[in-house]
Specification:
Blueprint: H1 3-70, H2 87-98, E1 107-112, E2 117-124, E3 127-133, E4 140-145, E5 153-158, H3 166-172, E6 178-179, E7 183-184, E8 191-200, E9 206-215, H4 216-224, E10 233-237, E11 243-246, E12 253-256, E13 259-262, H5 271-278, E14 289-295, E15 298-307, E16 315-322, H6 323-346, H7 349-374, H8 389-405, H9 415-431, E17 439-447, H10 449-456, H11 458-475, E18 481-486, E19 489-495, H12 503-514, E20 518-519, E21 524-525, E22 528-536, H13 543-569
Antiparallel strand pairs: 1-2, 1-9, 2-3, 3-4, 4-5, 6-8, 7-8, 8-9, 10-11, 10-16, 12-13, 14-15, 15-16, 17-19, 17-22, 18-19, 20-21
Helix pairs in contact: 1-2, 1-6, 1-7, 6-7, 6-8, 7-8, 10-11, 11-12
């Protein structure tokens, strides 16, 4: 055997072993990373769709609240409500109603059967417009006003007749609040959808229609601010396939003979919108769904969910993310593994295996973290100190968890994270009934918080919320959780409370801590805390019922405290 053949017999098998091992390790790394990314991507898609639906339905519900504040339904009153169409009486009511939801439902108006019209449009807290037309007026006047009764600055007049508008005509024949089709607003030409309600004077005589708008431009602005991924898109379509709102830069309307016309999803120039909607097997679904499509631009992961059904609308939310967005770091990691394999051949098998093992260990951490995240558990500290793609992926995991789990202002858990943790505990309790698992929810509502916002401003209010959240966090154990439920409401999740915690003692402790004085920049303020509680499984096994019971007990406590304060004052 020649010297060269011996060299071949030694080099070729060793090289084959090193390359084979490196390829195997690279494949395992790729699969583990892919599994981790798939688990996390599905969770992100579902959470993003839920977030969009929650925010959009909040706006739709806000429209109904604004309408009901002006013309309550009979079900909300002990006797039938008789509407007073006097414009001066309505002006004061509309000032209040238009300020309930300043972000979207800030334009409330009434059109009478005799052509009278009043509308209050709050563009900002200091910029308010009043739309006014008496029954005898030929034109409608638009004023810039500073308060009820102000007519000092007139902006313009126009030929507006409420009886000719689509929202008026559709509401005339309905006994309940009804949504119009999407149309261009008369004054500002924004694509708009209107919630309108016929109102009646005494003897059930038709008086006219009260209405409020949901401007679709604001929904698109909300979608555009969502941080999903580099090339993703989120959009909302109606039952006819027309775009309601989109996170993309393309405007979902076009000019036809000089008239704005809404666009269907399949006609959009944004490829990710037109192609995904065209290939959906069922354009309108009754339940949420995760789906993957193979398109010209590659595989795209979709989350599709119905929207607005309970409000009487049949819309659908779609979030589309190219698979490449999720897999980019994993693909880079795989290519790097090939380079490492070549380096291992040249330098040392041991060093190469050590490096690959380190890669696998970190990816396993990411996979385990993704599984915990999917189960609603808190993601463990990854402790991955790398500057390569895996380090970037680990940092992305942490950032994604922070965005999806924690309230941006107070840095405690958000509502979705709270529900996920409760659901996880309930599942564990069902799977292991012998463990006698129990937990308690404390519903905390801050008293006198609104007066701080009104007297000191929202920055001071935000500061109070941050301080209160920190106090609540300090009052509980590391294993427990504080979540901001909404506005000035918090929910505390106390785990393992079957026999180990005196709830009333904990409530007194938290109340005392929250009600300690708070130092602001130029003053010292104080807030109160009304706390209700509910325990699993004694008070129920459904988290919505537990929240409702805790909220009810909190409300009863708040009511009793107000009654006691009134008696003492007397």
């Amino acid at each position: 055997m020649s010297r060269s053949s011996l060299r071949r017999e030694l080099v070729i098998p060793i090289t084959a072993v090193v390359v084979g091992v490196s390829i195997a390790i690279g494949w395992v790394s790729m699969k583990a990373g892919t599994d981790a990314v798939n688990a996390l991507s599905q969770r992100i898609l579902v959470d993003m769709v839920n977030r969009i639906n929650l925010a959009t339905e909040k706006h739709l519900d806000g429209a109904l609240t604004a309408i009901e504040s002006i013309a309550p339904s009979a079900s909300h009153l002990p006797r039938e409500y008789e509407f007073n169409p006097d414009l001066h009486v309505l002006e004061d009511k509309f000032w209040s109603a238009s300020g309930l939801f300043m972000d979207v439902n800030n334009y409330v108006y009434f059109g009478g059967k005799d052509g009278r019209f009043i509308g209050v449009y709050r563009i900002s807290p200091t910029d308010v417009q009043l739309f006014w037309r008496e029954p005898t007026d030929l034109r409608r006047s638009v004023f810039k006003v500073g308060g009820v009764g102000d007519r000092s600055v007139i902006i313009r007049t126009d030929d507006f007749d409420p009886r000719k508008r689509p929202w008026y005509q559709i509401a005339m024949g309905s006994t309940a609040p009804v949504w119009s089709r999407i149309y261009n607003n008369f004054s500002f030409h924004y694509p708009t959808i209107t919630l309108a309600k016929a109102v009646f004077e005494h003897n059930r005589q038709f008086a006219g229609v009260v209405a409020t708008d949901v401007t679709l431009k604001e929904l698109s602005n909300f979608l555009s601010k969502l941080d999903i991924s580099k090339n993703s898109v989120a959009y909302i379509v109606d039952e006819d396939g027309y775009i309601v709102a989109t996170s993309g830069k393309e405007i979902p309307e076009r000019l036809v003979n000089g008239v704005p016309e809404r666009m269907r999803a399949v006609d959009m120039k944004t490829t990710l919108i037109s192609q995904t909607y065209r290939k959906l097997s069922q354009p309108m679904l009754k339940t949420a769904k995760i789906q993957s499509l193979d398109l010209q631009l590659g595989t795209v992961d979709l989350a599709i969910s119905p929207l607005g059904n309970k409000q009487g609308l049949h819309w659908q939310t779609i979030v589309a993310v190219p698979r490449a967005d999720f897999m980019s770091n994993i693909n880079k990691g795989f290519l790097q593994s090939v380079v490492i394999a070549v380096a291992c051949i040249l330098f040392a098998l041991t060093v190469g295996l050590t490096i690959v093992e380190r890669v696998i260990r970190d990816i396993r951490k990411l996979t385990a973290a993704a599984e915990k995240f999917g189960n609603g558990e808190a993601m463990p500290k990854l402790d991955i100190r790398r500057k390569d793609e895996i380090g970037i992926l680990a940092q992305t995991f942490t950032e994604m968890e922070n965005k999806l789990r924690f309230d941006k202002l107070t840095q405690v858990a958000n509502r979705e994270s709270l529900f996920a943790q409760i659901n996880y505990l309930q599942n564990i309790a069902l799977q292991h009934p012998e463990a006698n698992i129990g937990f308690t929810l404390l519903f905390v509502d801050l008293d006198r918080f609104k007066s701080i916002n009104d007297n000191y401003g929202h920055d001071a209010g935000d500061n109070v919320l941050v301080i209160t959240a920190a106090r609540l966090r300090s009052a509980i154990r590391d294993s427990d959780e504080v979540a901001r439920y909404g506005g000035d409401e918090f929910v505390l999740l106390l785990k393992d409370t079957k026999n180990s915690i005196d709830i009333h003692t904990m409530v007194e402790k938290i109340t005392s801590l929250v009600e300690e004085p708070i130092s602001l920049e130029h003053d010292v303020v104080g807030i109160g805390a009304s706390i209700g509680w509910a325990s699993f499984p004694d008070d129920g096994e459904d988290y919505l019922r537990l929240i409702k019971i805790a909220d009810s007990r909190m409300y009863n406590l708040k009511r009793d405290r107000k009654t006691t304060s009134f008696v003492h004052a007397v």
